[in-house]
Amino acid sequence: MLDPTVHAALAAILPPSALLTTQEETKPYECDGLTLYREVPGAVLLPDNEGQVVAILRRCHELSVPVVARGAGTSLPGGTLPVAAGVVLSLAKFKRILSIDRDARTAIVQPGVRNLAITEAVAPYGLYYAPDPSSQIACSIGGNVAENAGGVHCLKYGLTVHNIRRVRGVLISGDVVEFGSDALDSPGYDLLALITGSEGLLAVITEITVKLLPKPQLAKVALAAFASVEQAGSAVGAIIAAGIVPAGLEMMDQQATRAAEAFVHAGYPLDAAAMLLIETDGTPEEVAGEMEEIKRVLAAERATEIRISSDEAERALYWSGRKAAFPAVGRIAPDYYCIDGTIPRAALAHVLRQIATWSTEYGLACANVFHAGDGNLHPLILFDANKPGDKERTIAFGDQILALCIEVGGTITGEHGVGVEKLGGMCAQFAPAELERFRSIKTAFDQQGLLNPGKAVPTLARCAEFGRMHVHHGNLRHPDLPRF
Amino acid sequence: MADQALAALQDRIRAAAAAMQPLVICGGGTKTFYGEACVGERVETTTVAGIVAYAPNELVITARGGTLLAEIELAMAEHQQYLAFEPPRFAAGGTLGGAIATGLSGPRRPYAGAARDFVLGLRIVDGTGEALTFGGRVMKNVAGFDVSRLQTGALGTLGVITEVSLKCLPQSKAEATVVQACAVDESIRRVNVWGGKPLPLSATCYWNGRLWVRLSGAESAVSAAMQSIGGDRIEHAQEFWESVRDHAHPFFVAAQREDKALWRLSVKSTAPHADLEGEQLIEWGGALRWLVTAKDADRAPIRVWAKSSGGHATLFRGGNRSGVFTPLDATIATLHKRLKATFDPHGIVNRGRLYADF
User: Fold this and answer.
1) pLDDT at residue A480 in the model
2) Which residues of chain B have a CB within 8 Å of the CB of A125?
């Protein structure tokens, strides 16, 4: 329930249709892509111009009202979980592509524009926007910037931070700021990098200049099957060692392959322990040359089957199963929980073996999809939220996987962000002094801590509580308790 | 050895913080001309040196801040890998820490990325003497704010960089450089048109009526691109691009004369040729314009042009070393000061090197 003073202040800025306050109106915003956590916000605001955003933030700042900015609501770690006493600031109406500069290969877009809509709009110029998170048909570019989203082509083309030039936003004080520019660098500190992946804690984004790339003339994908996960992992290393940086390099284990095949009928090899998708792009000659090299490496690494896409339709078919891996897994279990750790690739076999052991111990199936090129692992734990204890065990299982990612030299989140879900993990990954610097950076932008409170950076108290749980060599003392 | 050196560095900074003694961070001393003049006791960082880990199959190298760039490149070359942002070497002895602290990138920048794009993680000793780690040794990592990139190009004002993990790339299988005569406006148009096509561009340079273009990639792609863009292939291409990168090219040598100043204008790639007093050399597909002026040339028209062209101007070398970077607007400047206070509350490390007031 919104405080009447706050309601009056917001009603003076927004028309009634852009200020949602009833339970029926605000309930749909109670969660995002992570349904394990829910909170109905005091109000949902739907501004349609930057002036309104400035006025909203200024008033919320004066009245100390928490503000959670939200795009398409596809966040997987609960990055846009509302605050009961605060407001959700939806950027859904900011969905215009403001300009496309064909010669400079940039586009200025509003934050609510869908990721894929950018590529569709610039396709007539032979250009595209490279980062392609699997949710790209739905997720919006503002959220991509806030989370530094990745995708299946990051190894060659980079993350969001590598593919944007400028972000315009509004601080909680109501001050409009620009980070980056039309040039390739800016004077002073790299605030464009700092704002990217800041999970809505530093500013509300109102405009983004994205970098566009020329669409490669041709792309082909190789599908390779392996008798063991170790062999598939070794093949990935061998491809890199051969001096090839594929446009995409993905791995799926048997569980994920079978789920995807049942869903999209891509013709995946069902008896393989693991399969790889390796994409190469460039001129026809380049693609032909690189594909020969890839085939040679795969054969030497004892792939049991190698198929090369013969045309664009077949390439799309091979990718369809990978891109739909999450919903495909969703069909074989009532619920699934997606983990997002990154590990050095050399540790892959060890990590997957450990996950398999825990899967048996917890009695919870786990399918693994892996951005193998850049070490980003997505175990999907299958569970049934209606079964007593399943949810708690699922979270504990996920926590153990993330603790293992840290132990082998990786990180608790490769591309989804920390949100509310991995606050405990932050306490494990960073030392107190480092977390203190994060809190200080937050304060530099937002002294009262009003923008997206309770996300991304854990409080001292939170870490103290986490510390009492005795994490030791990745083994938690009470694995049955829900943690990060 | 390196651990002891790191501990000694921490002690030194802690003592300086307690005494409010300003410190000037000094690595190989090859880029002291860059940035604002700043004063303080010298802190040598070359003692914290050495490659910590290099996994060619992971495409990651980790080395301490004082490690020579030359040593890192040698290690990588053994595995046919390299630093694709082509950090400039203005003299022998440049260190990794210095390359990341200045954040400068060479000719390949518009096509491969800048120094900040290759930084995966780093360790610093901040202005309180605390040793801190941010980012990691993996390609993708979004845990916590991106302090690694914040430190890149901060000119040591947020602490001493003691270790860096970088993404490595395999060397191109083939490389060729062509040169063609053309007018300056036409050269800007051409490089932008080519930039929108799937061509294996890896560098451009326009100077004195001629446009050099480097192509890198598969043999077939490079030869096809040579056909498509035209021009004469040059010999000794590597030396040419190194001379541009390291400012050993005649244009840059002339710029280092006592009575000259060198400006770096980073602008939108399609900005028309600048009608400014002085000689120019254009890199980065049009996005980087170097300008040689008289030592005391009026700064205002240069700054105005850069701003109206979507970017900023830096007095890179020579001239009066005060106010060399484009002034920040008030809100952004406030954020800078607060970030400085986060990592250096006593204001002692490289104070004033970036902007005089912090």
Assistant:
1) 44
2) 196
Nearest to B224 among A125, A283, A415 (CB): A283
Q: Packing angle between helix A312-323 and helix A254-264, nearest 10 degrees?
A: 120
| Measured distance CA(B66)–CA(B129) in Å, rounded | 17
ipTM over 0.90: yes
Q: Are residues B45 and B116 in the same domain?
A: yes
* pLDDT exceeds 50 at position A483: no
Cβ B143–A285 below 8 Å, yes or no? no
Domain A218-327 has CATH 3.30.70.2190: yes
Share of chain A above pLDDT 70, in %: 96
> Residue A298 has what DSSP assignment?
H
Which stretches does DSSP call E strand in B126-243?
A: 131-135, 160-167, 169-170, 174-181, 201-207, 210-217, 232-233
Low-confidence ranges of chain B (pLDDT < 50): none
Give the number of A-B residue pairs with CB atoms closer than 8 Å: 253
Contacts of A149 (CB under 8 A, 6+ apart): A115, A131, A133, A139, A143, A159, A160, A415
CB distance A437–B170 less than 8 Å? no
- Phi/psi for B205 (5° steps) reads -150, 125
Look at residue A469 in the predicted model and tell me its pLDDT.
Answer: 57
Residue keyed to tokens 């802690």: B14
Chain A residues within 8 A of B154 when measuring between CB atoms: 189-190
Mutate to test the interface with A, among B132, B140, B216 (most CBs of A within 10 A): B140
CATH 3.30.43.10 fits A4-90, yes or no: yes
Fold of A333-467: Alpha-Beta Plaits (3.30.70)
Whole-prediction pTM value?
A: 0.96
